[in-house]
Protein 1
Amino acid sequence: MPISKKVSTYLESASWIRKLFEAGNKMRQDGQGPVYDFSIGNPDLDPPPKFKEALKEVALDQRPGQHKYMANVGYLETRQAVATSLSKDFHLPFVPEQIIMTVGAGGAMNTALKALIDPGDEVIIVVPYFVEYKFYIENHGGVPVMAAATPGFDLDPDAIERKITENTRVVLINNPNNPTGVVYPQETIDQLGARLELHNKHRDRPIFLIDDAPYRKLVYDMDTCPSVFHAYPHALMGTSHSKDLGIPGERIGFLAISPQCVDWQRVAAAAAFTNRTLGFVNAPALMQRVVAKVQEELIDLEWYRRKRDRLVAALSRMGYNVPHPKGAFYIFPKAPGGDDIAFIEALQRMRVLAVPGTGFGMPGYFRISYCVNDDIIEGALPVFEKARKM
Ligand SMILES: Cc1ncc(COP(=O)(O)O)c(C=O)c1O
């Protein structure tokens, strides 16, 4: 076999999202009508106008040396803009030295995990989970350990605590959550933080709490997203502008280390090193200069809220068991009949693509990614209705 045995097994159990993406591409070319694709989280809306203005301004800047390597952590001016914005959001005194610009949230996760774990260390994740976490953790020799969420998909501090062993190095949460759209309340994150603090009393180094938060600004029915920074000192947040500015293709994000984190200077130095040695070297230069100018901008949240409300109301009327998600752009209903794979295949035969819960470690459910145009939603509703009755 020419390739790694490990990657070979990964390829055989290829992610459902990828499979559906490929199925969708084939269907789009078969000439048999529209495809209603709810399978991936690729926002179908343009970034805010100020993003394009900042992009033009940066492109026209004639100062020399703008396309060179820079410090692995990124430009100071960008990290200062991020630190100022985070200090305002979280009422904590972030400084640029606590910010590492990364290649998206995915880059931030890998940079952080590589910096914190040794081979064999355990990383607790919550089921259902973002499918890439297993790969990210195993990239660095870590061992993913699954903890159940509550029946309403909130964090379950008891379940997480039961999974803690002497090898636990990191608890990785994702708020707002993909695939459920649930936003963990501050109260539950605080409870988790308190449990971790208790465990730290018996350890020579603390467990780290990482929040993968690329959807943190996509929250509805509340002003701000609850945060790990208020709950626990040894906290890191990886995020990006993939979703809040609608620019996932530009690969720009950052890792933020809590000002209260134990020896944050050493953690930051480790992350600068791993950002480099994972081959990222630094986050894209042009985009760093652009996002420094638009930290307070946001895509049109109403665009998402309307779609969520339309879908949740319509699906509930049809008899689906749909929770009312408060964040991100996902809905995670129960699959009628209980067999998520059979249900997804039935939808696919009617040209609607959604992802089975099995792909997120949670059979019996399916995920709808509603970052799509209204005509896709309206075109698919009769199919959802038909599938519900099958
Ligand atoms: C939970 C979660 N984490 C990380 C990512 C990766 O984000 P980025 O495109 O910023 O790397 C995604 C993308 O969909 C996601 O849903």
Protein 2
Amino acid sequence: MPIIAVAGRKGGIGKSTIAGNLAAELAELGWRVAALDADPQHSLTAWAMQGDGLLSRTVEKVKDGDPGALRAKVRLLDKTADLIVIDTPPGMPGTTFHAALLADLMLLPCGASPLDLFALKDSLALALRARAQRRSKKPRIRLVPSRVPANTNLGRGLSESLEKLGKKVLPPIGQRIAVAEAVATGLTLLEFAPHSPARAEFTELARAVDRLLRR
Ligand SMILES: Nc1ncnc2c1ncn2[C@@H]1O[C@H](COP(=O)(O)OP(=O)(O)OP(=O)(O)O)[C@@H](O)[C@H]1O
Ligand SMILES: [Mg+2]
């Protein structure tokens, strides 16, 4: 069963937003998805509990982001899910490292600010340390341009700057009002605004992830 971890040291870069919407889009592509909220802030759970949509049936809390509890949840889900998305906390390298030890694919969202890029390098190093410990090419690592501002030089240059880090870059997610509005209703974009440009970006991202997982 493939496991995807969405991670990054920096707060507020869109990890939970990507984890929730990606879980929904991958479910739409036919996966039986479970989303594990391994962040003690439990933003993903709070989002899910705002409504009675797909996330309310998909998200499970991991107590305190505890690594043992995370492993136990993953084992339990083996019978009922065929894909797990783990949302990880900012600034808790212990929890994130354990997620990296479990994950087949690690998605590292990054915003357009130079400070975001700086934090991304730490997250990349953490993922590589997990690979070294596993003596494996897993987790595969992909960068995701996130909260990309429209019509700005910073936004336009983000994918290029990320490519220079030597890791593959997935389709970007723009900074868009609909993304935050969906959270307020407890829904993912595919439920809240299925024909919106914001939703289309998450569909593109999910298709790229789906291709990777099936390869
Ligand atoms: N693409 C986007 N467009 C508009 N708003 C966004 C987008 N992505 C995230 N946001 C908003 O930015 C805030 C932070 O997003 P989110 O909670 O997904 O980040 P995070 O990396 O999970 O944060 P934390 O590190 O605190 O867990 C939220 O209010 C969210 O609604
Ligand atoms: Mg979060």
